[in-house]
Amino acid sequence: MLFASNNLGKVLEVRKILNKNILSLKDLNKKIDVKETGNTFLENAILKAKEVYKLTNIPTIADDSGLEIPVLNNFPGVLTNRFLGSDKTDTEKNQEILRLMHGKEDRTCYFTCCIAYYDGINLITSEYRLKGSIAKSEHINNGFGFDSIFLYKGEYLSDMSLNAKNKISPRSQALIKLSQNKNFKKIVDLM
User: Fold this and answer.
1) pTM of the entire predicted model
2) Which of 45, 52, 76, 132 is the most exposed place for a label (fewest CB within 10 A)?
3) Where in the sequence is the domain holding 94, given as residue range(s)?
């Protein structure tokens, strides 16, 4: 089974949760960049899983995730990683979100992750949303992305230990849901 990523941290997380030797694109010496043209995280995860399977002929798990802010019509949503362009830093993106949130009373946000498994026949998906709120200022400590502006139960994700953050991580939770899916379990047991 293959996880459609070159990100070793993500691959290790998938291996740990599924308790399987999961390959990465790096293990295959492949650089596959699937265009994320879907309107939702789930559509993008499915696009990636199917495209990587088509190119490798290996059962594939793919994910897509990002930040959704209801008061901003769920912006940045599927554009989370590229809404200011690919050359912008996390801090520049976070500062833009804080600027857009200036004066907003409702600061509710969601960190959403969708997972798709595809093996040429079976398509199995899972999703998890972590509810939080956008802070009024950036607090850079640990983490990456929008961890320094995302508050979970009043605590910045950037202040959480890696262990604590992994327990609530939407990717971890979506992977756990996938691993508990009875159809997925049958497939994995046959591998």
Assistant:
1) 0.89
2) 76
3) 2-190
